[in-house]
Amino acid sequence: MISASELQRKIEAIKNIPTVPGIVQKIAEMVESPSMSAADVGKVIAQDQVLAAKVLRLINSSFYGFPGRISSLSHGVVLLGFNVIKGLVLSASVFDMLSDEMAGLWEHSVGASAVAGVIARHRGYAEPEEVATAGLLHDIGKVILAIELPEVMQQLDAIVAAKRVPRLLAETEVLGITHCHVAHWLCAKWNLPAALREPLVFHHAPQQAKFAPEQTAMVHLANILVRARGYGHGGDPFVPKINDQAWQLLGLSMDDLDAIVARLDVELERVNTHDLFSV
Ligand SMILES: [Fe+2]
Ligand SMILES: [Fe+2]
Predict the structure, then answer these.
(1) Tell me, what's the pLDDT at 89?
(2) CA 128 to ligand 1 center in whole angstroms
(3) Collapsing DSSP states into helix, strand and coil, what is residue 268?
(4) How many angstroms separate the CA atoms of 94 and 13, rounded?
(5) Residue 237 and residue 226: Cα distance in Å, rounded?
(6) pLDDT digits (tens, 9 = 90+) for 4-49
């Protein structure tokens, strides 16, 4: 088992060292610059062919719901906007580092993305793509923990199974931090906007969101619904309760919820996670 001091050192390393590859860092910086055009960003992504193929697959995946096939990266950048593209480039690179045993977490994330998109569109939200991207990235902290601290994963699983507690509590017990803290550090490093940052950091405590409470509430609900459908594996088998404040904020009726669940069954059926994962 990993020693306490070694664990502390590794957690500090997660805090300080960006885990993202150079090209992602470059794209993240580029989209901050006001003089950048969609074509410029498309060109940089295209330099890395594997990354480009993955980003295009994500753009064309059913959770964005574009009717025609999008074959050009710059067109995708125009349609989705810089922030969503930044999120997609990050997820394409970070999820790729996951081992095969963690495929359930990828499914959970893709499922949450599809559901978040369904909720956003059902509510007539102006930027459903952004919410879907926040859904895709919501557990990115878990991905980083799995990559950086693989030796701790079994310990977390054992606590979840023995004590029947959510993953979040097991993380606190073993690490003293949770995947939400990791998400917070990463978002600061990557300079993600509040619309992505807050759902990633507060999806388990949506009442704490200050700048993007609506997006956070949608991702909070998406995480619960995808778990309730038994789709993918979010790290434990439990379905959390819907937070009262988030539920009020969303203003959904039971009929709305039924309609969302019916729609998400269709969407989840269409999402081919394997195809999205293996480029
Ligand atoms: Fe989570
Ligand atoms: Fe989750």
Answers:
(1) 86
(2) 20
(3) helix
(4) 16
(5) 11
(6) 888 888 888 888 755 567 777 788 788 778 888 888 889 988 888 8
How far, in Å, from the CA of 73 to the mean position of ligand 2? Answer: 28
Q: What is the pLDDT of residues 196-211, one digit of tens each?
A: 999 999 999 999 999 9
Q: Which residue has the tokens 């969101």?
A: 209
Across the range 229-256, mean pLDDT stands at 95
Residue whose token pair is 């074509």: 39
Write down the residue that tokens 């999820």 correspond to.
95
**Contact predicate 268/111, CB 8 Å:** yes
d(CA 135, CA 225) in angstroms, rounded, equals 12
Sketch the domain layout of the chain as residue ranges. 4-19+100-277
Mark the residues whose beta carbon lies below 5 A from ion ligand 2. Answer: 139, 223, 234
Model confidence pLDDT, tens digit, residues 76-128 = 888 888 888 888 888 888 888 888 888 899 999 999 999 999 999 999 999 99
Give the per-residue pLDDT at 20: 67
- Rounded to the nearest angstrom, the distance between the alpha carbon of 234 and the centre of ligand 2 is 5
Look up the CATH superfamily of 4-19+100-277.
Answer: Hypothetical protein af1432 (1.10.3210.10)
